[in-house]
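Researcher: I'd like a structural prediction for the single chain below. Treat it as a standalone chain; there are no partners to consider.
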Amino acid sequence: MPAPRHRLVLIGSNLELRIVSIIVRARESVDEVVLLDRGSTDATVELAERLACPVLTHTEEHITGASLASVLKEAGLDDAERTLFLRVNDAWRLRDLPLSINRLHERWDVHVSIVLDEDEGPPEDVVLLDADIQHLQVTPTGFQALASLGPLGTAMDLPEGLEVRVSRHLARPSVHQAESLASASRMAQMFYWMLESKHPLMLIGLPGLVLFVLGIQLSGNVIDQFKELNSTSLGVTLATVAVTLVGLFALMTAILLWIMEKQVASLHHQVENEGGVA
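Model: Treating it as a single chain, here is the predicted structure.
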């Protein structure tokens, strides 16, 4: 089998809710997708293997160029014309994938994005073997030069003949969902409140059930009292239908919110058990 022209290496853990979508979408644009697992405790690895996606393991605290080179070498993967290492965390979204893959078409031998705060120094002065990497795009020549850097090597120490770009990656702030809804519409805030209340069946379902039963009773008892069609009978009929439909809608909404609340609780529990692994 010839070596792939473009390879995408996904770096992350506990991605079972979106790993299938990422792999399928990525294969539309690259020749090979590899998962570099960071110690998943869910079905991430199993799902990737079902899609015939090679799975490697990397559990060191920081992701460095040297460690990435070592992992690929131990796995026996052939050198690709260009390789993109992409860190998939909570801040990364599937809609960012096309932009990320476009980096494979850039002219750089080494393009590395380092996680740094705004008050830290320029990324060019960061020791690459200690740097926390968000994404890394390399050619075989650039990868070899990166892996052969000394323990205190920076981007300035790479060979002059290489096309090198080093950028700063600012992590998006982790905002609690309740805070992120501060600028949302009142309808969205009310919807979130109904989820957080954990009692949609009581708050919405019970009134909905009352209205639904009332509408049924009205249709059987009140409407039969009218012997002819006039404005009064028509108004009562429409009111009865409206009450019945509102009650049915409220009852169905309560059931759906109750189901969604269970799903949200399950996701929160999963996030809490991730243990902070990126």
